[in-house]
Amino acid sequence: MAVNSSSELSVILEQYDLGDLVEFERDARGTVNTSYTIVMEKTGQRKKYFLRRYKSWIKIEELQFEHSLINHLIANRFNLVAGVIPTRADTTYLHRFEEGGDPNGVYYAIFDFLTGEDSYTWIAPRCSPTEIASSAEVLAGFHLRTAGFTPHGSRLEPRITELLPVIEANILDCARVARGNVFEDYLHQNLDLIRVHLKLTCDALERLRTAGLTELVVHCDFHPGNLKYAAGRAVSLFDFDWSKIDYRCYDVALGLFYFFVCWEPELDGELRQNDARLFLEAYQSALAGKAGLGPLSELELNALPAMLRAANLYVLNWTVLDYIRKPVDPLEYLVCLKHGVNTLRWLDEESNQASLTGLFSSLRT
Asked: pLDDT per residue over 198-208, tens digit each?
């Protein structure tokens, strides 16, 4: 059950020393967690916060991972993130059990409210050139400050190389769901194509497993909907609950997928390569000469085509898991499923692979 009244919110807020609840509004943009903007008043001063009710399958060690990462970033002067507000018991989260609810309980956390505008979602973003370059600089700064960080807890999701076989199993599970609708019809029509693409990607990443690619804490959900912008620049970064330890170049590839793969019907699945070049040039420039973590290496740049395939499959995995777990609108999720299939078709074209290889190789330092 989601938070749906001021009285229920008050029960949660009793565990915090933030004052009195003045108003609240649900954030309609979230697709996994349930979140609210709340306004509190204390000693005559009003202040906004962001309250999150976590997805039911979150584990305590994953919360610890996320919150220790946020605290590390703030301690290392990465000031684009929202701090976690401690409870009266000095914990970074609240664990509640609800009558008739999940026997494992529900986790909540409250964060500072970030500045900037929510200009985009993850679907069909079209950032300006200055926003693209600034976003790349934010990702570079995030990677620079997470290199060498040892978090508390752990994200239970494995690295992408180990996750791909799980993704195939999830897709096959989804294909066995029998609700009888257009989403399932389209999945069945393209199941063989998806599995062939999965095999190609698994083989490519297997060859990279022992290549020595840089690993660090990645954001794993870096898209314009998780950034706020002001005056053409990215000024805030949030949603770290998907963060985990993985390949740095995989995180970059996810960013390329989210920012630059087109959603328009006539272009759906096509990567905007000029914008991708701008993003990568800004990323490389932001890390040039930095101690501890430099620009993407030749090895990492060479791995980007395979990582782009993996990024697309990762988001496709979210689509099928959401379909399995929740009573979703099949037409809405059909759009996401088609987007994934159209992207893998575009990536499978030899001419596009050659173009991407040329693009990435041109960025070698």
From this structure: 999 999 999 99
168 Cα distance to chain centroid: 20
Give the tens place of pLDDT for each residue, 193-237.
999 999 999 999 999 988 999 999 999 999 999 999 999 999 999
Domain count, the chain: 2
Dihedral angle over CA of 356, 359, 361, 363, nearest 10: -140
The amino acid sitting at 221 is D
Which amino acid appears at position 339 of this protein? H
Maximum Cα interatomic distance, the chain, rounded to a whole number of Å: 65
Residues 6+ apart with CB under 8 A from 98: 1, 105, 106
Q: How far apart (Å, rounded) are the C-alpha atoms in residues 77 and 120? A: 26
Structural domain range at position 64: 6-112
Q: How many residues in the chain?
A: 365
Verify that 101 and 140 share a domain, yes or no.
no
Q: Are residues 46 and 190 in the same domain?
A: no
74 in Cβ contact with 145 (< 8 Å): no
Instruction: Please name which of 343, 359, 147 lies closest in space to residue 258, comparing C-alpha atoms.
Output: 343
CB 31 within 8 A of CB 322: yes
